[in-house]
Every structure is written in structure tokens, then in C-alpha cells.
Design a protein that fits this description.
The chain is an alpha+beta fold. The protein has helices at about 20-35, 45-55, 75-80, 80-95, 125-135, 165-200, 200-220, 225-240, 250, 260-265, 270-275, 285-290, 310-325, 340-350, 355-365; strands at about 1-5, 10-15, 65-70, 105-110, 115-120, 140, 145, 150-155.
Length: about 375
Amino acid sequence: MTPLFQERQLNGYILHSKDITVERQKQKEIEYISYHDYLTDLYNRRYFVYSYHRFISQRSFPLGIMMIDINGLKIINDAYGHSQGDMTIRLVSRLFMKVFDMEDVVARIGGDEFAILSPNKNSEQMQAYKEKIIELVKEINVGNIEISLAIGYEVVADSNQDIDELLSAAENHLYRHKVTVGTSIRNHAIKAILNTLTDKYVEEKIHSERVSTFCKKIGIELGISKEEVDLLELAGMYHDIGKISIPDAILNKPGKLTNEEFEIIKTHTQVGYQILKAADEYSGLAEYALSHHERWDGRGYPRGLKGTEIPLFSRIICVADSFEAMTADRPYRKGMCVEDAIIELKRCSGSQFDPDITVKFIDKVLSQKL
């Protein structure tokens, strides 16, 4: 407010005003961003810690602390891409809105980790939360993979406990739950991914089954143990699981691939490795999936391994995979006859293929009735 004088007499005032609506709105937006997770709109770790101290000062005991982790999220990211992984995180976060009370603080504190503060909740109430979450998450599926969560909680009785110690205690309960259910869930996820691939592409189902059969026969002819033959047969079935990440337009392209498209195709070995490595039951197959496009002369991918640097099972898969691909009918071309495929195998023996395995496959396996 500014006074106005005329001939030394106060004649009035000028009032100054400023619309701060926009500033207040911006301030609210900044405050929201500082306390919320960008992906889920849940609270973030900063607000979680702030709320813990607030509940402690308010003596909101008993105070429940729950930790939740999404089982197998890495497998989803590797198989279907991070966009599907992000969608999974959002779906799980929405589920929490159906479970927790308004006074509870639900936060995403890491990539696949959530933490919840529940004031005035005892162990029985926290267990009821856990059971409801486990039931509701059964409704979430991503690419045929059933989503599951590992859950642990701790209940604070007084204000003398440090937040890091409490989070650690809740996390220990979570890991015990994860050991119980996580392994079987990851193993199931691998099977679901292969089923998704083979359901989508009938040719891939036939290809995997035939490669697996050829691998088994080669293994028997090489005289490896029954246990190794079984593992080799499984490796043949899962060797191309990484193709789940390849776009349809490239995987089904009838003509010759461009250089850029071929580079994308080549990534399926590394994706397959990542997927299989994530599950205990299948981790032993990961190296064979990674290396089945290596060449005897060292000109293969992804690492350019040479000769016996390439795992034996990968060398076997390479021969079986190539023969099956040459002789299989595709919608856009007729497969080679066996005789022509054998000529090609012999031509590439010692360059693309292990010569000993090639001879064994031609002389012993292909002499049998296919």
C-alpha cells in the first residue's frame, strides 16, 4: 500500500496486489513430487522415513512395518521388456489401495520394493493384510506369468527401536517368505515364457521339440551319462527362449533380414541367458542358450568363442538347431531335403560346426529313422 499526497495532504492510497495462485500451485506440485514416487504415485522413501518419525512422536503403537517385494520382476523385464515390468509395478501398487487403510502410509522404496507403515496395528491385523494381498495378487498376470509377492512384517511396540533395524527385521521375514515361494514362482515363470513363445509361434514349438530330440540322440551317441542327456534334452528345448523379446515383425519376416534386424535377432542369446539364469531350476541351461550361436572358427556370437572354448552342449545344439532350421518347412519357404542339408553340414564342418559332432550326427543320428 502506497500513500498519495497532494500539497502535503494525504489524499489516498494505492493498493498493490499480486495473484499468487500460480506460485502456490507450483509449490504444491514441488511438494507432491518430493514426497511421491514418479511411477506409481505412491509415497517415496523420503516420506516413508518422515512418517515413521511422525508416528513415533505421536506414539501410534503398535506400529506395523511391512516390506513387500515382487517375485521374478527381473524375468519379466528380460523377457517382455521394462515397459511390462513397469506395468507390473503399477498393477501391484493399485492392488495396495484395496488393502490398506487411509491412515496407512504405502511407499515404493526401491525398484521392486514397497514398504508400508500401519499405525495402531497389531500382529494379527498385519497378518490379515498379508493374507489379503496374497489372495488379491493372484488376479494379476503378465504374459502368462502369475505375479507373486514376498511379504514380511514387524510390529513396533515402543519408540526405542531404530528404523533401519526395524526395516532389516521386516526384510528378514520377507526373505524367509521369498525362499519359500520365490524359487517355485521363478521356475514357473520360465515355463510360462516358453509356453507364451510356442503358443504364439507354432513353428517355434515344433523347432524346439525337434532340436531337443536331436540333442538327446547326439548325447546318447557321444556316450554321455543319463543325467547329462536329460540336461542336454532340456537345453535343446529352451535354447531359443530369448526370442520372446524379439518383435513379431522381425521374427516372422519372410524375406532377408536387414543388418539392423539381424543385430536385434542376435540379442536373443543374451536375453535367454538372463531369463534362465534367474531361476534355480534352469540356471544350468543359461550358458548353453548364450553360446549356441558361437562358431567352431570363432566367428559366431555373442562372444566369438572358438573350438572347445564353446561349451559341449552349445556345440551340440548348434548342429541340431541348424539342421532343423534347414529342413523345416516355413510358411514362406519349403525346407531342404535331408540329403541337401547333410551336404551343407559337411560343408560347414570345421568352420561353423564342431567336426566330431557333425560326423556323429550324420553317421549315427541321421542314419536312424527321423
